Amino acid sequence: MKKVVLGVAALSLVFGAAVAAFASPQQARIPDLLSRGVEFTDASYRFNRPGVNHGAFEWRGLLTDALPDDRHNVYVDVKIEGHDWVRYYGKQGRSVLLHKSNWDGAQRYTGDARLRVCRDRGSLRPDNCAPLQILSYDWDHA
């Protein structure tokens, strides 16, 4: 009887590890994004698996207006596969912790995202932005 119980326990551990590996989302840190007047630090992202948080691209980070006296705001732009950019503004002269999720309701999950941070310099001068971050996850080989 002990052998049967131990065999079932071992089998359940192996099966549980396989399920946990599939259930784990792909996640990583985003390098600090810096440009004149804007900083995005302590940032990370996660590509959620289908069925978890809409299969969204979930991200978080500290957006900072690094030149508070210039009277320009800062923002994060996020683009997921096949859709337009979505803009999230910070607060002038302050740091704001952002934690957002981006997804497409017609898809089970998201595998490609682009993220950039910029200082909004108004309509007459171009915004200055940190280098674009391209993030992707190959769900077929997960």
Q: Can you lay out the helices and strands and say which pair or pack?
A:
Layout: H1 2-23, E1 26-30, E2 33-35, E3 38-47, E4 57-65, E5 73-80, E6 86-89, E7 95-102, E8 112-120, E9 128-129, E10 133-136
Antiparallel strand pairs: 1-3, 2-3, 3-4, 4-7, 5-6, 5-8, 8-9, 8-10
What can you tell me about this protein's structure?
With 142 residues, the chain is α+β, with helices and mostly antiparallel strands. Helices cover 15% and strands 44% of the residues. It contains 1 helix and 10 strands. It has one helix at 2-23, and strands at 26-30, 33-35, 38-47, 57-65, 73-80, 86-89, 95-102, 112-120, 128-129, 133-136. The strands form 2 sheets. Strands 1, 2, 3, 4 and 7 form a 5-stranded antiparallel beta sheet that branches. Strands 5, 6, 8, 9 and 10 form a 5-stranded antiparallel beta sheet that branches. It is elongated, with a radius of gyration of 20 Å. Residues 13-23 have low confidence and may be disordered.
> How far is the N terminus from the C terminus?
38 Å
Main structural class? alpha+beta
Approximately how much helix is present in the residues? 10-25%
What summary fits the major beta sheet?
A: 5 strands, antiparallel
> What is the succession of H and E elements?
HEEEEEEEEEE
Compute the number of strand runs: 10
Strand content range: 35-45%
Radius of gyration: 20 Å
Number of helical elements:
1
Mean pLDDT: 84
Dominant shape:
elongated
Unreliable stretches covering 5 or more consecutive residues: 13-23
